[in-house]
Protein 1
Amino acid sequence: MFFPWSNSKGALIGGISSLIIMGCLVFGAQQAIASGNIQIAGKIMSTEGCLLASTLDSYLVENETFSVITPLPEENHSSTTQEDLFFMFKISYRYYTLIGFLITLFVGLAASFITGLSKSQDVDPILLTPPIRYLVFPSYKLSERQLERNSMKELNADDLLPLKADATV
Protein backbone atom coordinates (compact mmCIF):
# COMPACT_ATOMS: atom_id res chain seq x y z
CA MET A 1 0.00 0.00 0.00
CA PHE A 2 1.13 3.52 -0.69
CA PHE A 3 -1.41 5.30 1.49
CA PRO A 4 -1.91 3.91 5.00
CA TRP A 5 -4.96 6.10 5.63
CA SER A 6 -6.94 4.73 2.66
CA ASN A 7 -9.71 2.28 3.39
CA SER A 8 -11.46 -0.56 1.60
CA LYS A 9 -14.49 1.56 0.69
CA GLY A 10 -12.26 4.10 -1.02
CA ALA A 11 -10.39 1.39 -2.90
CA LEU A 12 -13.63 -0.20 -4.07
CA ILE A 13 -15.20 3.11 -5.13
CA GLY A 14 -12.00 4.17 -6.91
CA GLY A 15 -11.66 0.87 -8.74
CA ILE A 16 -15.29 0.74 -9.87
CA SER A 17 -15.34 4.39 -10.97
CA SER A 18 -12.13 3.90 -12.93
CA LEU A 19 -13.56 0.79 -14.57
CA ILE A 20 -16.71 2.66 -15.63
CA ILE A 21 -14.89 5.78 -16.89
CA MET A 22 -12.22 3.80 -18.75
CA GLY A 23 -14.91 1.54 -20.25
CA CYS A 24 -16.71 4.60 -21.63
CA LEU A 25 -13.42 5.99 -22.94
CA VAL A 26 -12.29 2.78 -24.63
CA PHE A 27 -15.66 1.85 -26.15
CA GLY A 28 -16.29 5.46 -27.20
CA ALA A 29 -12.94 5.62 -29.01
CA GLN A 30 -13.57 2.26 -30.67
CA GLN A 31 -17.02 3.39 -31.76
CA ALA A 32 -15.53 6.60 -33.22
CA ILE A 33 -12.98 4.54 -35.18
CA ALA A 34 -15.64 2.10 -36.39
CA SER A 35 -17.97 4.89 -37.53
CA GLY A 36 -15.16 6.66 -39.41
CA ASN A 37 -14.97 9.74 -37.18
CA ILE A 38 -11.34 8.88 -36.45
CA GLN A 39 -9.32 7.77 -39.46
CA ILE A 40 -5.83 6.47 -38.91
CA ALA A 41 -3.59 6.72 -41.97
CA GLY A 42 -1.97 3.46 -43.02
CA LYS A 43 1.75 2.90 -43.21
CA ILE A 44 3.69 2.90 -46.49
CA MET A 45 4.35 -0.71 -47.45
CA SER A 46 6.39 -0.39 -50.67
CA THR A 47 9.93 0.74 -51.46
CA GLU A 48 8.90 2.45 -54.70
CA GLY A 49 10.62 5.81 -54.95
CA CYS A 50 13.00 5.02 -52.10
CA LEU A 51 16.40 6.49 -52.92
CA LEU A 52 18.21 4.25 -50.47
CA ALA A 53 17.01 1.09 -52.19
CA SER A 54 18.12 2.32 -55.63
CA THR A 55 21.48 3.51 -54.27
CA LEU A 56 22.00 0.19 -52.50
CA ASP A 57 21.19 -1.69 -55.72
CA SER A 58 23.68 0.41 -57.70
CA TYR A 59 26.32 -0.11 -55.01
CA LEU A 60 25.87 -3.86 -55.06
CA VAL A 61 25.74 -4.12 -58.86
CA GLU A 62 28.35 -1.56 -59.92
CA ASN A 63 30.42 -1.59 -56.72
CA GLU A 64 30.05 2.19 -56.38
CA THR A 65 30.07 4.14 -53.15
CA PHE A 66 26.92 5.50 -51.59
CA SER A 67 25.87 8.93 -52.75
CA VAL A 68 24.18 11.59 -50.69
CA ILE A 69 20.58 10.59 -50.18
CA THR A 70 17.94 13.25 -50.33
CA PRO A 71 14.93 12.66 -48.10
CA LEU A 72 11.55 11.90 -49.60
CA PRO A 73 8.93 14.62 -49.35
CA GLU A 74 7.05 14.38 -46.10
CA GLU A 75 3.55 13.00 -46.23
CA ASN A 76 0.86 13.55 -43.68
CA HIS A 77 0.57 10.35 -41.60
CA SER A 78 -1.34 11.85 -38.71
CA SER A 79 -4.83 10.84 -37.68
CA THR A 80 -7.68 12.92 -38.98
CA THR A 81 -10.57 13.62 -36.66
CA GLN A 82 -13.74 15.62 -36.71
CA GLU A 83 -13.79 18.83 -34.74
CA ASP A 84 -16.84 17.92 -32.68
CA LEU A 85 -15.39 14.61 -31.43
CA PHE A 86 -14.84 14.39 -27.66
CA PHE A 87 -11.16 15.15 -26.98
CA MET A 88 -10.64 12.10 -24.76
CA PHE A 89 -11.43 9.79 -27.68
CA LYS A 90 -8.41 11.16 -29.52
CA ILE A 91 -5.96 10.01 -26.82
CA SER A 92 -3.64 7.16 -27.71
CA TYR A 93 -4.45 3.75 -26.25
CA ARG A 94 -1.01 3.77 -24.64
CA TYR A 95 -2.23 6.30 -22.07
CA TYR A 96 -5.25 4.23 -21.00
CA THR A 97 -3.37 2.49 -18.18
CA LEU A 98 -2.01 5.76 -16.80
CA ILE A 99 -5.42 7.44 -16.94
CA GLY A 100 -7.09 4.45 -15.24
CA PHE A 101 -4.43 4.43 -12.51
CA LEU A 102 -4.81 8.16 -11.83
CA ILE A 103 -8.62 7.92 -11.70
CA THR A 104 -8.42 5.01 -9.25
CA LEU A 105 -5.87 6.83 -7.11
CA PHE A 106 -7.60 10.20 -6.83
CA VAL A 107 -11.19 8.95 -6.62
CA GLY A 108 -10.15 6.26 -4.12
CA LEU A 109 -8.34 8.75 -1.91
CA ALA A 110 -11.24 11.21 -2.09
CA ALA A 111 -13.70 8.44 -1.20
CA SER A 112 -11.46 7.38 1.69
CA PHE A 113 -11.46 10.95 3.02
CA ILE A 114 -15.25 11.15 2.72
CA THR A 115 -15.99 7.74 4.27
CA GLY A 116 -13.53 8.19 7.11
CA LEU A 117 -9.80 7.66 7.08
CA SER A 118 -8.26 4.65 8.67
CA LYS A 119 -5.62 5.27 11.31
CA SER A 120 -2.09 4.60 10.13
CA GLN A 121 -1.31 2.95 13.48
CA ASP A 122 -3.96 0.29 12.75
CA VAL A 123 -2.23 -0.78 9.53
CA ASP A 124 0.28 -3.63 9.68
CA PRO A 125 3.62 -2.05 8.63
CA ILE A 126 4.53 -5.08 6.52
CA LEU A 127 1.64 -4.20 4.15
CA LEU A 128 3.16 -0.82 3.27
CA THR A 129 5.79 -0.30 0.60
CA PRO A 130 9.26 0.13 2.15
CA PRO A 131 9.64 3.89 1.49
CA ILE A 132 6.19 4.64 2.92
CA ARG A 133 6.75 2.21 5.80
CA TYR A 134 9.81 4.13 6.97
CA LEU A 135 8.05 7.49 6.59
CA VAL A 136 5.00 6.44 8.62
CA PHE A 137 6.87 4.20 11.10
CA PRO A 138 10.40 5.67 11.31
CA SER A 139 11.46 3.37 14.14
CA TYR A 140 10.28 0.22 12.36
CA LYS A 141 13.11 -2.00 11.16
CA LEU A 142 12.43 -5.42 9.71
CA SER A 143 15.22 -7.97 9.85
CA GLU A 144 15.66 -10.88 7.45
CA ARG A 145 14.63 -13.38 10.13
CA GLN A 146 11.42 -11.46 10.82
CA LEU A 147 10.64 -11.53 7.11
CA GLU A 148 11.17 -15.29 7.00
CA ARG A 149 9.00 -15.82 10.07
CA ASN A 150 6.20 -13.66 8.64
CA SER A 151 6.21 -15.38 5.28
CA MET A 152 6.70 -18.97 6.49
CA LYS A 153 4.63 -19.55 9.61
CA GLU A 154 4.78 -23.09 10.92
CA LEU A 155 1.63 -25.15 11.06
CA ASN A 156 0.87 -27.50 13.92
CA ALA A 157 0.04 -31.08 13.02
CA ASP A 158 -3.14 -30.76 15.11
CA ASP A 159 -4.37 -28.00 12.79
CA LEU A 160 -4.24 -30.37 9.82
CA LEU A 161 -5.98 -33.36 11.44
CA PRO A 162 -9.75 -33.87 11.07
CA LEU A 163 -12.03 -33.49 14.09
CA LYS A 164 -11.89 -36.33 16.57
CA ALA A 165 -14.95 -38.57 16.86
CA ASP A 166 -15.54 -37.73 20.52
CA ALA A 167 -15.32 -33.96 19.96
CA THR A 168 -18.58 -32.10 20.20
CA VAL A 169 -19.37 -29.44 17.71
Protein 2
Amino acid sequence: MAENREDEEPRERVERREELVNYLRKLLSCLRDTGRFLKIYWKIVFAIFWALFLLPFLLIYDSSEVRCAYVVLLMGGYWVTDCFPMAITSLIPVVMFPALGILSTADTCACYMNDTIMVFIGGLILAIAIEHSNLHLRIALGVMKTVGCSHARLLGGLCIVTTFVSMWVSNTAATAMMVPIIFAVLRELEQVSILNMIHIQGVLKLPYFLLMGDF
Protein backbone atom coordinates (compact mmCIF):
# COMPACT_ATOMS: atom_id res chain seq x y z
CA MET A 1 0.00 0.00 0.00
CA ALA A 2 2.84 2.38 0.83
CA GLU A 3 4.51 1.67 -2.53
CA ASN A 4 1.25 2.38 -4.39
CA ARG A 5 0.86 5.70 -2.61
CA GLU A 6 4.45 6.61 -3.47
CA ASP A 7 3.77 5.79 -7.14
CA GLU A 8 0.57 7.85 -7.19
CA GLU A 9 2.27 10.97 -5.79
CA PRO A 10 4.81 11.30 -8.69
CA ARG A 11 1.97 10.70 -11.17
CA GLU A 12 -0.06 13.50 -9.61
CA ARG A 13 2.95 15.81 -9.76
CA VAL A 14 3.54 14.97 -13.42
CA GLU A 15 -0.11 15.56 -14.20
CA ARG A 16 -0.03 18.93 -12.40
CA ARG A 17 3.10 19.92 -14.29
CA GLU A 18 1.49 18.94 -17.58
CA GLU A 19 -1.62 20.94 -16.70
CA LEU A 20 0.53 23.93 -15.75
CA VAL A 21 2.51 23.68 -18.98
CA ASN A 22 -0.67 23.43 -21.03
CA TYR A 23 -2.13 26.42 -19.19
CA LEU A 24 1.01 28.48 -19.85
CA ARG A 25 0.95 27.50 -23.52
CA LYS A 26 -2.67 28.56 -23.84
CA LEU A 27 -1.89 31.82 -22.02
CA LEU A 28 1.05 32.58 -24.33
CA SER A 29 -1.07 31.75 -27.36
CA CYS A 30 -3.82 34.04 -26.09
CA LEU A 31 -1.31 36.85 -25.48
CA ARG A 32 0.10 36.41 -28.99
CA ASP A 33 -3.36 36.55 -30.52
CA THR A 34 -4.16 39.63 -28.43
CA GLY A 35 -0.92 41.28 -29.53
CA ARG A 36 -1.65 40.55 -33.18
CA PHE A 37 -5.18 41.90 -32.79
CA LEU A 38 -3.96 45.12 -31.15
CA LYS A 39 -1.22 45.51 -33.76
CA ILE A 40 -3.79 45.37 -36.55
CA TYR A 41 -6.76 47.12 -34.92
CA TRP A 42 -5.06 49.43 -32.40
CA LYS A 43 -6.50 52.54 -34.04
CA ILE A 44 -10.08 51.37 -33.60
CA VAL A 45 -9.36 50.22 -30.04
CA PHE A 46 -7.83 53.57 -29.14
CA ALA A 47 -10.69 55.50 -30.75
CA ILE A 48 -13.26 53.63 -28.66
CA PHE A 49 -11.17 53.62 -25.47
CA TRP A 50 -10.35 57.35 -25.67
CA ALA A 51 -14.00 58.30 -26.16
CA LEU A 52 -15.06 56.11 -23.21
CA PHE A 53 -12.19 57.40 -21.04
CA LEU A 54 -13.35 61.00 -21.44
CA LEU A 55 -17.05 60.17 -21.12
CA PRO A 56 -17.25 60.32 -17.25
CA PHE A 57 -16.20 63.98 -17.28
CA LEU A 58 -19.02 64.69 -19.71
CA LEU A 59 -21.55 62.90 -17.50
CA ILE A 60 -20.41 64.42 -14.21
CA TYR A 61 -20.06 68.04 -15.32
CA ASP A 62 -22.99 68.77 -17.58
CA SER A 63 -22.25 72.18 -19.09
CA SER A 64 -21.58 73.53 -22.55
CA GLU A 65 -17.93 74.30 -21.69
CA VAL A 66 -17.28 70.73 -20.58
CA ARG A 67 -19.03 69.35 -23.66
CA CYS A 68 -16.88 71.55 -25.86
CA ALA A 69 -13.75 70.46 -23.97
CA TYR A 70 -14.78 66.83 -24.48
CA VAL A 71 -14.92 67.32 -28.25
CA VAL A 72 -11.60 69.21 -28.25
CA LEU A 73 -9.80 66.52 -26.21
CA LEU A 74 -11.37 63.80 -28.32
CA MET A 75 -10.10 65.46 -31.49
CA GLY A 76 -6.69 66.06 -29.90
CA GLY A 77 -6.25 62.37 -29.10
CA TYR A 78 -7.34 61.32 -32.57
CA TRP A 79 -5.11 63.94 -34.16
CA VAL A 80 -1.97 62.97 -32.21
CA THR A 81 -2.34 59.22 -32.74
CA ASP A 82 -3.70 59.59 -36.31
CA CYS A 83 -6.19 56.79 -35.65
CA PHE A 84 -8.48 58.47 -38.16
CA PRO A 85 -7.45 60.51 -41.21
CA MET A 86 -7.08 64.18 -40.38
CA ALA A 87 -9.88 65.11 -42.75
CA ILE A 88 -12.31 62.90 -40.81
CA THR A 89 -11.02 64.15 -37.44
CA SER A 90 -11.47 67.76 -38.49
CA LEU A 91 -15.14 67.09 -39.35
CA ILE A 92 -16.01 65.66 -35.91
CA PRO A 93 -17.39 69.01 -34.63
CA VAL A 94 -19.91 69.06 -37.49
CA VAL A 95 -21.51 66.00 -35.90
CA MET A 96 -20.63 66.40 -32.22
CA PHE A 97 -21.41 70.08 -31.67
CA PRO A 98 -25.07 69.85 -32.76
CA ALA A 99 -25.47 66.46 -31.08
CA LEU A 100 -24.19 67.80 -27.73
CA GLY A 101 -26.05 71.08 -28.02
CA ILE A 102 -22.93 73.25 -28.23
CA LEU A 103 -23.68 74.96 -31.55
CA SER A 104 -26.23 74.55 -34.26
CA THR A 105 -25.36 72.85 -37.51
CA ALA A 106 -25.46 76.14 -39.42
CA ASP A 107 -23.14 77.91 -36.97
CA THR A 108 -20.72 74.98 -36.90
CA CYS A 109 -20.52 74.70 -40.68
CA ALA A 110 -20.09 78.47 -40.97
CA CYS A 111 -16.84 78.18 -38.97
CA TYR A 112 -15.41 75.94 -41.68
CA MET A 113 -15.92 78.51 -44.44
CA ASN A 114 -14.81 81.83 -42.97
CA ASP A 115 -12.44 84.32 -44.54
CA THR A 116 -9.28 82.84 -42.99
CA ILE A 117 -10.01 79.33 -44.20
CA MET A 118 -10.69 80.59 -47.72
CA VAL A 119 -7.36 82.45 -47.69
CA PHE A 120 -5.57 79.22 -46.73
CA ILE A 121 -7.41 77.20 -49.36
CA GLY A 122 -6.72 79.80 -52.05
CA GLY A 123 -3.03 79.97 -51.17
CA LEU A 124 -2.64 76.18 -51.17
CA ILE A 125 -4.46 75.90 -54.50
CA LEU A 126 -2.15 78.56 -55.90
CA ALA A 127 0.89 76.67 -54.60
CA ILE A 128 -0.31 73.44 -56.23
CA ALA A 129 -0.95 75.29 -59.49
CA ILE A 130 2.57 76.77 -59.43
CA GLU A 131 4.10 73.35 -58.87
CA HIS A 132 1.90 71.71 -61.51
CA SER A 133 2.82 74.26 -64.17
CA ASN A 134 6.54 74.08 -63.28
CA LEU A 135 6.54 77.80 -62.52
CA HIS A 136 8.62 77.07 -59.42
CA LEU A 137 11.41 75.79 -61.70
CA ARG A 138 11.31 78.99 -63.75
CA ILE A 139 11.43 81.13 -60.60
CA ALA A 140 14.30 79.07 -59.21
CA LEU A 141 16.30 79.31 -62.43
CA GLY A 142 15.51 83.00 -62.69
CA VAL A 143 16.80 83.64 -59.18
CA MET A 144 19.96 81.66 -59.87
CA LYS A 145 20.50 83.49 -63.17
CA THR A 146 19.94 86.92 -61.60
CA VAL A 147 21.88 86.69 -58.32
CA GLY A 148 24.35 83.95 -59.19
CA CYS A 149 25.19 80.68 -57.45
CA SER A 150 27.24 81.91 -54.51
CA HIS A 151 25.89 81.06 -51.07
CA ALA A 152 25.24 84.60 -49.88
CA ARG A 153 23.68 85.90 -53.10
CA LEU A 154 21.51 82.84 -53.63
CA LEU A 155 20.25 82.88 -50.05
CA GLY A 156 19.56 86.61 -50.30
CA GLY A 157 17.66 86.17 -53.54
CA LEU A 158 15.47 83.43 -52.07
CA CYS A 159 14.80 85.54 -49.00
CA ILE A 160 13.73 88.49 -51.16
CA VAL A 161 11.38 86.27 -53.15
CA THR A 162 9.96 84.82 -49.94
CA THR A 163 9.39 88.25 -48.44
CA PHE A 164 7.71 89.49 -51.61
CA VAL A 165 5.37 86.49 -51.84
CA SER A 166 4.49 86.74 -48.14
CA MET A 167 3.36 90.35 -48.61
CA TRP A 168 0.37 89.22 -50.70
CA VAL A 169 -0.65 85.83 -49.27
CA SER A 170 -0.68 84.23 -45.84
CA ASN A 171 2.44 82.74 -44.29
CA THR A 172 1.13 79.20 -44.68
CA ALA A 173 0.38 79.71 -48.36
CA ALA A 174 3.73 81.46 -48.91
CA THR A 175 5.54 78.56 -47.28
CA ALA A 176 3.65 76.08 -49.45
CA MET A 177 4.66 78.11 -52.51
CA MET A 178 8.31 78.57 -51.54
CA VAL A 179 9.08 74.97 -50.56
CA PRO A 180 8.95 73.61 -54.15
CA ILE A 181 10.94 76.66 -55.34
CA ILE A 182 13.69 76.03 -52.78
CA PHE A 183 13.80 72.33 -53.58
CA ALA A 184 14.05 73.16 -57.28
CA VAL A 185 17.05 75.39 -56.53
CA LEU A 186 18.62 72.63 -54.44
CA ARG A 187 18.18 70.12 -57.27
CA GLU A 188 19.87 72.48 -59.69
CA LEU A 189 22.73 72.99 -57.23
CA GLU A 190 23.13 69.25 -56.76
CA GLN A 191 23.63 68.88 -60.48
CA VAL A 192 26.60 71.25 -60.42
CA SER A 193 27.87 69.88 -57.06
CA ILE A 194 27.94 73.16 -55.14
CA LEU A 195 25.39 72.28 -52.45
CA ASN A 196 26.83 72.74 -48.95
CA MET A 197 25.00 74.68 -46.23
CA ILE A 198 22.41 76.44 -48.39
CA HIS A 199 19.74 73.86 -47.60
CA ILE A 200 20.05 74.29 -43.83
CA GLN A 201 20.36 78.06 -43.98
CA GLY A 202 17.39 78.41 -46.30
CA VAL A 203 15.12 76.25 -44.15
CA LEU A 204 16.11 78.09 -40.94
CA LYS A 205 15.71 81.61 -42.37
CA LEU A 206 12.51 81.00 -44.35
CA PRO A 207 10.10 81.66 -41.39
CA TYR A 208 11.93 84.90 -40.55
CA PHE A 209 11.46 86.36 -44.01
CA LEU A 210 7.87 85.13 -44.09
CA LEU A 211 7.21 87.28 -41.03
CA MET A 212 9.01 90.22 -42.63
CA GLY A 213 6.52 90.17 -45.47
CA ASP A 214 3.65 90.86 -43.05
CA PHE A 215 4.99 94.27 -41.99
